[in-house]
Design goal:
Elements (H helix, E strand, L loop, with lengths): L1 H9 L5 H23 L2 H4 L6 H33 L13 H34 L6 H15 L2 H12 L1 H18 L12 H10 L19 H29 L1
Helix pairs in contact: 1-5, 2-4, 2-5, 4-5, 4-6, 4-7, 4-8, 4-9, 5-6, 5-10, 6-9, 6-10, 7-8, 7-10, 9-10
Length: 255
């Protein structure tokens, strides 16, 4: 498996997927920073210095990048594989299709982790420049890694969609996830919608509603008990989705 992961990792060298790791966090911070200067002064005075930056940066990240970024990522992975022969190499080597599939998911997870690290660094630098003091280290790291962990189940799901029907279906699924995730995140049934998990768990960490509005004290969305539940469900779902899609991929390649 280690050799498979190393092989998959090398495929990303000098590709747009690698550039996406750096460009995506910068793009979302460029969106978040101007918001501070567009907000009315009366609105800003009720916020803690870092709350607006964290709320906007992480909120945009969970609402847009989580569904659409992973959808695009999966589409790019499948497009590259199609150009390379569409897994015909499996017919020439004694390699388990399920192992190849699991390796792809693992490498995609590693790259989204690296993207999260870049996002965290960019947020810290942006905050030091615009706020300059009392850095909320715990909230910054908790928010970033919570989004990453809860987005992992989308990787096998989106990769399956891209492999099954191509880029259009992967992007369409991402758009569907964006809409339903934002719609269900503040509702009681958020736990049944994987796309809503990053948004819902982010609320008690940053104190911001999935729609980007700061939460009032006592708001139910500030309940932090959802965080361990959401992370546990995300890890279990990742294993289940990986297992089921690996079985599907194995059958497809055997055909």
């Amino acid at each position: 498996m280690i050799n498979i992961i190393q092989s998959e990792y090398l495929k990303y060298k000098r590709t747009f997927k690698r550039k996406l790791i750096l460009l995506a966090p910068l793009f979302f911070i460029l969106i978040a920073l101007p918001t501070k200067f567009l907000m009315p002064p009366d609105f800003l005075k009720h916020l803690k210095p870092w709350q607006l930056l964290l709320g906007n940066g992480y909120n945009w990240w969970s609402v847009l990048f989580t569904p659409m970024g992973i959808a695009l990522f999966a589409a790019l992975v499948q497009s590259q594989e199609k150009k390379a022969g569409n897994y015909r190499g499996l017919l020439l080597h004694n390699i388990s299709p399920s192992a190849i599939w699991t390796g792809k998911i693992a490498v995609m997870a590693i790259h989204t982790f690296l993207t999260t690290l870049v996002l965290i660094v960019v947020i810290i630098i942006s905050g030091v420049i615009t706020v300059g003091k009392d850095i909320p280290w715990l909230k910054i790291f908790a928010g970033g890694f919570t989004i990453w962990l809860t987005s992992l189940p989308l990787i096998p799901l989106q990769l399956w969609a891209a492999t099954w029907k191509g880029t259009a279906v992967s992007i369409a699924l991402g758009i569907f996830g964006l809409i339903i995730g934002a719609e269900e995140a503040p509702k009681p049934y958020w736990i049944y919608v994987p796309w809503s998990w990053p948004m819902r768990l982010l609320s008690p960490i940053t104190g911001v509603h999935p729609n980007g509005i700061p939460l009032s004290p006592g708001d139910p969305l500030l309940d932090s008990s959802v965080i361990p539940v959401g992370i546990a469900v995300s890890i279990i779902t990742l294993v289940v989705f990986t297992f089921l899609t690996a079985i599907w991929f194995n059958k497809e390649e055997v055909k």
